[in-house]
Amino acid sequence: MTADRSRSDVRIIVGAGGQGRVVLDVWRSEIPAALFCFLDDAETVRGTQILGAGVVGPTSRLADLEGEAILAIGNNDVRLAFARTWKGRTWGRVTHPSAVILASATVGEGTVVFAGAIVNAGARVGRHVIVNTGSVVEHDCHIEDGASLGPGVCMAGRVTVGRGAFLSAGVTVAPRVTIGAGTIVGAGSVVTRDLPPSVLAYGVPARIARPIDSTFDWERLL
Q1: Of the candidates 23, 12, 13, which has an alpha carbon nearest to the alpha carbon of residue 131?
Q2: Is 85 helix (H, G, I), strand (E, B) or coil?
Q3: How many whole angstroms separate alpha carbon 37 and alpha carbon 70?
């Protein structure tokens, strides 16, 4: 694909890092005939090919390109900030063919459901959510906008995950538990009680370690 191509059959992935590569493969599995490209602000990848898809420019080019787009950005805060900046943009919904989304469940635009994930009856998954490989979102769960479920997350029924919350790999959440907006739960934790917004919690059972603020190092998670 050339840098000046702008057509409705193009699928645009914003972010050419690890998250972007996975999104590319998942989206190709769903619609193999589409044309794919990346946008990324890192000059080091500009003009290169990643898994056969070109990095055709910075994220500002999103204004010029037609077609569905996905924000492939692992940092929840940054992903939500991009979504606010590009309000009104057409966002795709990406679902790997091996994932299962029940007919009564709803999935918002901009959300990616990776291989082997299950979204069960009555579940509501918001916009720009990452439902990672093998995650289970049980019946009547509510996942708010911009949240991220790591590989192998398993939540029982009627769980609520707040806006921008991050559940690391292998987290288990008991029924009817609420995890507050912006809260981060460490890998392998078992959450048996509600967690407030904007805290770091981990362990079996999960306990609050400290508040989350603007100094938190997201590189530890991604």
Answers
A1: 23
A2: helix
A3: 11
Residue with tokens 């059972």: 205
pLDDT digits (tens, 9 = 90+) for 130-147: 999 999 999 999 999 999
Tokens of residue 137, six digits: 């979102």
Q: How far apart are CA 181 and CA 84, in angstroms?
A: 17
CA 23 to chain centre: 9
CB 134 within 8 A of CB 117: yes
Whole-angstrom distance, CA of residue 52 vs CA of residue 57: 15
Threshold 0.85, pTM exceeds: yes
Listing DSSP states for 130-160 in one string gives EE-TT-EE-TT-EE-TT-EE-TT-EE-TT-E
Nearest Cα neighbor of 40 from 23, 22, 24, 20 is 20
The tens digit of pLDDT for each residue in 81-110 reads: 999 998 888 899 999 999 999 999 999 999
CA pseudo-torsion sign 59, 62, 65, 66: positive
Enumerate the active-site residues.
Answer: 139
Strand partners, 49: 54
The strands making up 178-179's β-sheet, listed across from edge to edge, are: 106-107, 124-125, 142-143, 160-161, 178-179
Distance CA 119, CA 141 (A): 9
Per DSSP bridges, beta strands 190-191 and 148-149 are unpaired
